[in-house]
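INTERNAL TRANSFER SHEET
From: sequence group
To: structure group
Subject: Magnesium transporter

Please process the attached sequence and return the structure record in the designated field. Keep the field labels unchanged so the import script can parse them.
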Amino acid sequence: MDGTPTSSVQASFVEDLQTKMRPDRTDEVAPPSYEFEVLDAVLNAVVIELGNELESVRTPVISLLAELEENIDRQKLRMLLKLSKQASAFEHKAKLVRTVLDDILESNDSLSALYLTDNAQNVHGPEDLSEVESMLESYYAICDEIAQDAQSLTSMIKNTDDIVQTILDTNRNSLMLLHLKFISCTLALGTGTFVASFYGMNIQNVLTEADLGFVVVSAGSVTCIAGAGWFGFRIVGNLKRVTMKRNKGFLG
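Return from structure group:
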């Protein structure tokens, strides 16, 4: 598709290759062999494509991470997951290109095989590999830098995702503790109501006829509410301390 980075790289590759292969070149330095000019143009197009793809991934990632520092919502988390997959795929691609170049540099036979013209004329020996080796090393350095940038980008995404998950877990635990506190209060009030319900039953008993029956039942209800509430909040507090110790042991 016209206007895309890939099309720009392809056009640049063709233009660069055509320039290097012109028969009317007037460079003072003798041009390298045909195969090295082609290899140089191909590797140049590869690193340009990798650089453009890195920027196309890094720009939205940096923007999204800055937005997540201000506010966390579901839509941003979905976008973070999508960008994380893209960044991981690009990191894998950049490392593959770097690995290919490294494998070629580690093999003298592969380096010697790149001298197509000299090999065809039987004038080149495997001891002289400096020309192609220096070219590949320069492109290896560029690919290595791109791969490291991609790895840093995925590390930033992973660190942000871990922080977001920690915040969400903390909020979830806070809501659970609040829910337990409400349950404890409900249980305490239910206990007091249970005691008072006996006093309000239409059945004759000692407390109904006693002058201090209302005071005794009220005091008993309040005591039951306070006791049940204290017991429930104590359990919640113990649960909170156990959770904090467990998390501390896990982090330590």
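Handover comment: Confidence is low (pLDDT under 50) at residues 1-7, 20-30, 248-252. The helical segments are 5-20, 34-70, 74-106, 108-113, 116-121, 130-199, 206-209, 213-251.
Transfer complete.
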